[in-house]
Amino acid sequence: MNINSVTRRTGLFLTAAIFLTGCTVGPRYQPDRMKPPAKFTEDDHAATPEEIEETDRELKQWWHLFKDPELDRLVDKAIAGNYDLQAAGQHILAERAIRDVQASQWYPQLDADAGGGNVRYSINIENWPLRPGNPANHPDANYLTYGMAGSWQLDVFGRIRRSVEAQKYAVEATIEERRALMVMILSEVASDYMMLRDQQLRLEIANNNIHVAQDAYDLTNRLYLEGVGNTMQIAQAKAELDSQTAAREPLKTHISQITHALDVLMGQMPGTSEIELKVAKPLPKVPEFPAALPSIVLANRPDIRTAERQYAEATARIGMAVAQLYPNFSIPISFNPNASVMSQMTEAATMSWQFLMMASLPLMHGGKMTSQVRATQAAAEASRLNYRQTVLKGFREVEDAMAAWHDDEEHTELLAKAAEDSALASERARKLYAAGLVGFLEVLTTERTTLNAQNAEAMARLERLQDAINLYTALGAGWQGIALTNTTLPVSLEKQNILARAFQQ
């Protein structure tokens, strides 16, 4: 059989193998469709297409709905400087690089080598071609070699295609995880900012109550000097003043802690914005309830999108496991001339090469490969069920947030009216006490009631703002208007290896 015949048969074998490359084993991914209801149970409004479009536009940057420039500034700084967000961008780069590593298996793998030196062989071996002890033996030899060695994996049954597909879905899941982190950071910045303004409001209430307690203490002393009061009333007034003063200190501590948390979210040292943020400002107003909330907006939630991509990845990994049950085809290639002098390196007699078509078929592995298929099937089913559970969780969070938004509105209005009535009662009690018509106990009671009512109103206002933040977060809003960070490696590969400029290694 001559070399031409071998080459022709090898070529036919290779052509047939490449033709079979279109065969990809394993299940093809089919999204697990869960039909959502047309609307949420907590929202009976029938939305028009215009309202849906308006809501979609507003939710992309929902923090602007609070109309607070300081909040907008904090959000912008957090998006640009948060280190967790930057690290998530690097995770995307890493997953993309792993995908490229998987895809590299499609191409021939080729390496070049060269070498030379002196080689000495043992002559004290019976079967050596030159008998031991023969003075004609020359155990030393100059050795020069160069050549190339490579291999080409033929993806006949789609193992490589499935691995690239799985990694592609892994990249997309990582992107969604970064978007979920973005939603969480936006929520934390807005929540911390609202908490900061709430604590500043309570500090203002505490300062006002200290002034009221001081006035009551001064009044009690004056009445005592006029022969109207007694020392017990003075002691009660002093205790109330001390109590109100002490209640102010934890508020100062909490304000400092919140500013530190905001600084870390923005990627800067705690205390950097302390002076700027400690300037008291009123709580923002609660935005209007979104004009339309069709349930399809849950498709924006990054956690649902992540779960769906993870299910797709797990499905592709079934194909990888199934492909292991089928024959594996490869083409090993080598070209390796050897000689003792440089002038002989190009002669035909020095040439050594091989070009083969290799096939391997798994026969007996104790059930390992079929077990791997069952394991990937179970993992894929678990991913599908996790996706469904994530969808249910998303619906529940949106329904809960809408219920809280509607229920807390009336609750806040009633508490505001109670705080107003309590303040009026406290003022009248002080006047009646000054006129000697009521005792000091009535003054203390009305002042404490006023303090509790004012703090309850402040807490309710904070809860109303948090209701809005929770709804926007539950809807998965905020990441749509922000592009992924285009981060790059700090070291240029092209500058590290000259060959990288010519070859994609």
From TrEMBL:
Q: Where in the cell is it found?
A: Cell membrane
Asked whether the UniProt record includes Membrane among its keywords, one would answer yes
Cite the GO molecular-function annotations of the record: efflux transmembrane transporter activity
Q: Where is the composition biased (Basic and acidic residues)?
A: 30-48
As for membrane topology, the entry says: Lipid-anchor
Q: Give any Pfam family that matches.
A: OEP
Q: Which ranges of the sequence are coiled-coil?
A: 441-475
Query: What is any one of the record's Gene Ontology cellular component terms?
Result: plasma membrane
The keyword Membrane is annotated on this UniProt entry: yes
For region Disordered, the annotated ranges are 30-51
Arranged from A to Z, the UniProt key words for this protein are:
Coiled coil, Lipoprotein, Membrane, Palmitate, Transmembrane, Transmembrane beta strand
Record-stated family: Belongs to the outer membrane factor (OMF) (TC 1.B.17) family.
The entry's protein name is Cation efflux system protein CusC
Identify the species of origin.
Answer: Komagataeibacter saccharivorans
Record gene name: cusC
